[in-house]
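Example 4.3 (complexes with small molecules)
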Amino acid sequence: MGWWRYVGVFMMSMTGTGLAQETGAIRLPPPETEGGMLLMQALKARHSTREFGSKPLPPQVLSNLLWAASGVNRPDSGQRTAPSAHDWREIDVVVTTAEGAYRYDPPTHTLKRVVAGDIRHLTGVQDFVAKAPVNLVYVADLDRMSEASAEDKAFYSATDAGFMAQNVYLYCASAGLAVVVRGLVDRDALGAALGLGRHQRIILAQSVGYPAGAK
Ligand SMILES: Cc1cc2nc3c(=O)[nH]c(=O)nc-3n(C[C@H](O)[C@H](O)[C@H](O)COP(=O)(O)O)c2cc1C
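Answer. The structure with flavin mononucleotide bound is encoded below.
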């Protein structure tokens, strides 16, 4: 039974974010924003791993992970754990699991289903991506970047995604999770599977799970 059955599932209308077939919403548990490893210890522990166990991430861990990536940390303004050039907030985090692909919606801390079914193997060209329980995909919506030049859109969307990926690295170090950020992605194949439009660009992917051999 998929983990989403343990949390409230309710239907939402199309949200206009441009991701195809965005029909379902899954409420995540509130993120745990206290505790964790001391920052300097997390920086010491941060590293990339390319071997993952198959154990899924519990909803609480997924909630914490996504909040670290791009969650709202200042509810008054809706601003996020990661900085964003011009506060454009143009990067969507798409979560792919064995069950499907979901867009993380920071204001509601929910997942909106984009694709039903397992497309993890399409999130990268390395063998481990099909097995890693979660592959995050950082998708830039260039239409949110107002009148910026093409060069600036490319530069700022890449840096903004990088900040999110580093937040995820530090959360994973703190939580004892295995993680690697990845630029090697077949963007045409993954973009087609996610139903991305011309204004959307896949910047990075990031595999997350428990280390191989962990109980
Ligand atoms: C922008 C970027 C793209 C990367 N792309 C890949 C990738 O496609 N596949 C991969 O296995 N590692 C990828 N990495 C991870 C690097 O190989 C890794 O960070 C580097 O070897 C240093 O290791 P460390 O992260 O443990 O310090 C990428 C890292 C960055 C910053």
